[in-house]
Write a structure and sequence with these properties.
About 40% of the residues lie in helices and about 20% in strands. It has about 300 residues and is an alpha/beta fold. The strands form three sheets. Strands 3, 4, 5, 6, 9, 10 and 11 form a seven-stranded mixed β-sheet that branches. α1 packs across α2 and α1 crosses α4. The protein starts with a helix and ends with a helix. The C terminus is likely disordered.
Length: about 300
């Protein structure tokens, strides 16, 4: 039966182009490299290298088996990394609850680095409304949440303010409000308002109902699409509509009561008294900087 060490020697010989070069790279005697490959050929019943030339060349069968050998070595490395991670008591799985609107561009490199640092930890991202983030974390169904801040205090939750994101009032360019040179509060009251609401029936504390006509969705992406279709006006995070504004499929309304885009605070929430493992400890600190960056950009 072949060993991983034999596979490493086989791959090294193929990549280096000679048994002597492979021996130097691996710190072995050339005779040990030659014998190891010969033993592989006996075990597998195929000739891996054509030795009739000055430097041994891979045979067609050797080329085919080389690809398989590399796969086995990569899997073995992954297994060793996973075993080492578990020895350090890294978590096997992390469940996160995240308001979809908070998946800002700065989070992408954080997740990529997390994958490199913690290959043995599986990450489950659950996209829910901010009010549902609280429920999932409080009930222990998520180890961490990212949400727009709630004005309600919860005994089961520890909250940390991370930064804030700008919101603007938007509508379709064909909407009657888009034709006004300035939009007053009384103007908004006339037309349908699009609002976000979680499965628990709660919306964003920072966005009260203004209009008597209300439609609800459970995430801000849906509100953006409903507004784009001309079905109402809505407050949405500015970073979610940059492409729509550039394409002219949405416009910001010239509301006279907001001189600047108002900003919604963002919280990181964990179960109260939680003792995070290495992966969650790193991740909860890494995501904190994402919203500092968003704040400074805007």
């Amino acid at each position: 039966m072949y060993s991983l060490e034999q596979l490493r020697i086989f791959v090294a010989a193929a990549e280096q182009g000679s048994f002597s070069a492979a021996a130097r790279r691996l710190g072995k005697a050339q005779s040990a490299v030659s014998q190891s490959i010969a033993n592989l050929e006996i075990d597998w019943g195929v000739e891996l290298f054509d030795r009739r030339t000055r430097k041994p060349e891979l045979t067609p069968k050797g080329v085919s088996l080389l690809a398989h050998a590399k796969v086995v070595l990569n899997q073995a490395r992954s297994l060793e990394i996973a075993a080492a991670a578990l020895e350090q008591e890294q978590e096997t799985t992390l469940e996160l609850a995240v308001d979809e609107a908070l998946m800002v561009p700065a989070i992408e490199p954080v997740l990529a680095e997390f994958a490199e640092r913690f290959p043995a930890t599986s990450l489950a991202l659950n996209a829910v409304a901010s009010s549902d983030v609280l429920s999932l974390v409080a009930e222990g169904r998520a180890q961490m949440g990212l949400m727009f801040s709630s004005l309600t205090f919860h005994d089961e939750i520890d909250s940390t303010y991370l930064g804030d994101l700008p919101f603007v009032v938007v509508a379709s360019p064909q909407h009657p409000l888009a034709r006004l040179s300035e939009v007053k509060l009384a103007d908004l009251c006339i037309y349908r308002q699009l609002m976000v609401k979680g499965f628990d029936g709660r919306g964003l504390d920072q966005v009260p109902p203004i209009s008597a006509q209300l439609w609800w969705a459970n995430n801000l992406f849906l509100l953006r699409e409903l507004a784009r279709q001309g079905l109402g006006w809505s407050y949405v995070p500015l970073h979610l509509i940059t492409q729509e504004l550039a394409a002219g499929t949405l416009v910001t309304l010239p509301v006279v009561f907001d001189h600047q885009p108002w900003r919604a605070p963002v919280d990181r929430v964990l179960p109260r008294g939680a003792r995070p493992g290495p992966a969650l400890t790193w991740l909860k600190e890494a995501v904190s900087g994402c919203f500092h960056q968003e704040t400074s950009r805007s």
